[in-house]
Amino acid sequence: MIFKASIIKAENHSVWRRAVQMLSTLHEDIKLTITSSELIVWSMNSADTSMSQIRFKRNFFDEYEFQPENTVFGEDGLQQVEDRALVVHKLYSFKTNGKHLSVLFRKPENDNIKSLELAIHNGAACPESLANKLQITIHTENLMLKEYVPHIIPIKYDPIVINLRYKKRFLEVYGSSSETQEEQLDPRLLEIFRKFDRELSESYFNNDIVSNTKRSRDLVPEDEINYLCCNIQLLKNFIDSCNTGATEEVKLEVSLSKLCLTAFTRGVYSKNNDILRNAMRASNTVGTSDLEHYCLFTTTGDDDQRRPPSKVVSFGMKDFRNFINTVAFWRNDQEIHMWFCRPGDPVFLELDKDDLCLELVQVTSSNEDLVPSGNKIKTQTTSPLKEIVHIKLGSPRKSPLKGLTPSKTPSSNETTSPLKPKTLFVKEKSFDADQQRWKNPVRGKRLPDSQEEIPKSLHHAPNEPAFKAQRTQTTIEWGQSVPESANDAAATALDQRDLLKQEKRKFLQNIRNEREKDVEKDEPTQGVDEFGPTQVDKPKGLFD
């Protein structure tokens, strides 16, 4: 056996079952990584916009054994990582079907689970039938034994260390300045700083995260990090009070005085502004005094505005609801931590207990207005840190087309386009008259804009013949052209029916001329063909 773990406590059975069910809602496959100190179970949706990870620590299990050196089968899942202290740790990772696991770990009816065992053989004495298989054994109180052997696929573990990056930035922005803070900070917040610092130093994946030197430079906009800590029941009440089944997104807005949580759904409209789906919005607002801790990255210039500065992010509702319902299993006073940066950056939620840690990472919407660029401003970290630091706020994005942006006010020297559009559709009042006339809409001369409503009988365009050009209001033209000859000028006076008659006469005249030529060629043999049964039938024309 390279891995063996067992769970006996009834509470841990419920936690394990809820965790697997939540992860199976993100993706069909669930990935597991075994280490000597914890079992990491995680899943990510197909769009890579939401990820949840649950770390079951060694003391969560009643029995926990991991011997990676005995691995013979499935060596693709075996790997080694090196932490900042140059200590090498061995891991074994694999993935399996999460939908199947959620069904297998479901609580049986009229019975309770007495013990649950997980095992992976893959050793030298492993039979071929158990190679790359996860052995699940369940003992119930009714003396029933259930055994399942789902297939596993060994993989390499690629850790997504957003949790470590956010905690490192949080300590650099707020924790480093707490050493020189004039006013006394909350001892509980100082304990959180020490706890996160200890977690960063003990993590297996801190090689590229933790730095040995403290921050000595000024803050820049990329250093923005906001932190909230509140009771689970506050978020659970928001989920229960809002119609989360009919809403798709959550907007979190926090200021120095209040926290506003909004569940909303955007309206959908057709091209004709017909309502395809109604918009919906429900909000819960609480004061910041109800929060355990909060740290906001704000600027000193925001204090002069009438509206107090606030931080706003929005993210998906479905995964957030599933995560809150899972962590709400503990009804005692449990605190949930939340970190977020600017709109578009991921939001990170964490519930840390003694024997497990639940984490959720979601990508936020980036359609919020960013801080204007190009100014030197002062920033201050508010509640509980209020030290003022100077930063130079650079532009987050420079457009190469900034110098080519046209002015909004029209210039007097600007050349107007000769292709000014005309009305494409006929007005109702002139529709009947146009049906009677049916004039040519292509060859008319366009009137100036100021003379569009003048009757055609009173308007004579300059440099044009004395005849009237009758046309409908629907015109499609490309400027004024000079007539090349008198024939072109005369052709503009003809209406469409006269043109058709003229073309028909020309066509029939050409046919008549061709027939006369054929008759002249056949004159020597015409006498033979005129009489007798071999007479040639010649069709007559319409005007013969």
Topology:
Blueprint (H helix, E strand, L loop, with lengths): L2 E5 L2 H17 L2 E6 L3 E7 L5 E8 L5 E4 L11 E5 L5 E10 H7 L8 E8 L13 E7 L4 E4 L4 E3 L6 H14 L11 H16 L23 E6 H10 L7 E7 L2 E8 L2 E2 L5 E3 L2 E8 L5 E7 L10 E7 L1 H10 L7 E6 L6 E6 L3 E7 L13 E7 L5 E5 L38 H7 L48 H7 L3 H26 L4 H5 L14
Antiparallel strand pairs: 1-5, 1-8, 2-3, 2-7, 3-4, 4-22, 6-7, 7-11, 8-9, 9-10, 12-18, 12-20, 13-14, 13-19, 14-17, 15-16, 18-23, 20-21, 21-22, 23-24
Helix pairs in contact: 1-2, 1-6, 3-4, 5-6
What does this structure look like?
The chain is α+β, with helices and mostly antiparallel strands and about 550 residues long. It is about 20% helix and about 25% strand. It contains 10 helices and 24 strands. The chain has helices at about 10-25, 100-105, 160-175, 185-200, 230-240, 320-325, 430-435, 485-490, 495-520, 525-530; strands at about 5, 30-35, 40-45, 50-55, 65, 80, 90-95, 115-120, 135-140, 145-150, 155, 225-230, 250-255, 260-265, 270, 275, 280-285, 295-300, 310-315, 335-340, 345-350, 355-360, 375-380, 390. The strands form 4 sheets. Strands 2, 3, 4, 6, 7, 11, 12, 18, 20, 21, 22, 23 and 24 form a 13-stranded antiparallel beta sheet that branches. Strands 5-1-8-9-10 form a 5-stranded antiparallel beta sheet. Strand 13 and strand 14 form a beta hairpin. The longest helix has 26 residues, at about 495-520. The model is unreliable at about 370-475 and about 480-485 (pLDDT under 50).
